[in-house]
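So, does this match?
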Amino acid sequence: MQFDYLFRNVTVIDGSGGPQYRGDVAVSGDRIVEIAPAISGQAQHEIDGTGRVLAPGFIDVHTHDDINVIRMPEYLPKISQGVTTVIVGNCGISAAAATVKGDVPDPMNLLGEAAQFVYPTVDAYAQAVTQARPAVNVGTLVGHTALRNNHMDSLFRAADDHEIQAMRQQLRLALQQGALGLSTGLAYASAFQSTTEEVMALAEELAAEQGIYTTHLRSEFEPILEALDEAFRIGRHGNVPVVVSHHKCAGAKNWGRTAQTLALFEKVREQQDVACDCYPYSASSSTLDMKQITGDFDIIITWSTPHPEMAGQSLKQIAESWSLTLEEAGKRLMPAGAIYHNMDEQDVQRVLRYPLTMVGSDGLPNDPMPHPRLWGAFPRVLGHYSRDEQLFPLTVAVHKMTGLSAARFKLTDRGLIKCGYFADLVLFDPQTIRDVASFSDPQQPAAGIEVVMVNGVMSYGQNHHIIGRAGRFLRREAINLKEQQ
């Protein structure tokens, strides 16, 4: 038998959460075709993986890479950490199915400028991804705020019945074209005035198409239990799975409360399908939000339209240099981006360890001084949290970023090392893998990632160069099944 690639003597961690084993893995075309203790066939390319782990390519379930995967298809920040699939359209903001007239509203401005929103349907977005041929696979959610912006004259009020109907119709079409589901960003001012009933009405469209509901909760601060309750009610009403995005207890007064929030997850999961994702850091990053300005913790400015020279400095330093209060300095910097050191490390570890938690980077690729999670989230889980802190075994860490995620988002034939599955693979050194990206120098590829393969194409090598681009647009499983029938 002649294979395209043969990985020999690797430690296979297959993504299922089950035990690791030694073996050989063969790839032909875009699929894994044989797995055995020793494979006798020949291959065009043989890779000796002694002492290395072969895992499924990592699935970044929470990204804002919507436009960047098209504009910069090499997409080094993700492929360099072993990510082979990104899910875009999170937090209520998506480039797919968005039409922008005039200024891009906050937080849609995290994705790009008005001229870059040129994908009025999921099909148009899918076509652009296919043409760009990025290094990673791309699946998209449809953003609630994007829908609101398409159909409303003001985002700072609740939608009326006519607008809700228009949003429903557009969401239905997006789902039929293969969107994975609906995302909301209810904490942002541009969606905060939407009622629970408005979101429930949209959620009604999801069940028929087997979509998912993901949410950046209405609050991650003191009212978090009420915000979780709202999210779960929306899921129950629509009879759809719920994913709580970047689950955290933010703000000093909220530290330690993940014990309560995860207990609520445990109670609710007996009746309905719920999960969450998180990134492995105790600092968050988003646009600068006046509601989040406080002296309780450090806030670092990542970009500012009127004062770009302030990127990388703390709000406190800037306020002092201008002889202003934190709030006054914040207003002068707007619009701007910020990193908020607003979490407790024990909470981060508790959420990461929770069995239903997937890993997502939530990186913001357009920040001049991005949060290091953009380049380092996945190696940080494997190196820092699994190997060094021993938070969980490597098999569990890999499961949280592969098999668990693929099953949750219905990504057909991905997320596992299994015969017949797509050859999205990452070979890494378990002893040396680590996140190199730091808050002071965030744009650095990880150590210990040796090769990354996407759809059977070798895509990233040891010298930190992109050597292939074979990413595809991934439509929801229900669509794939319809096409096969």
Remarks:
- The radius of gyration is 22 Å.
- The chain has a mean pLDDT of 96.
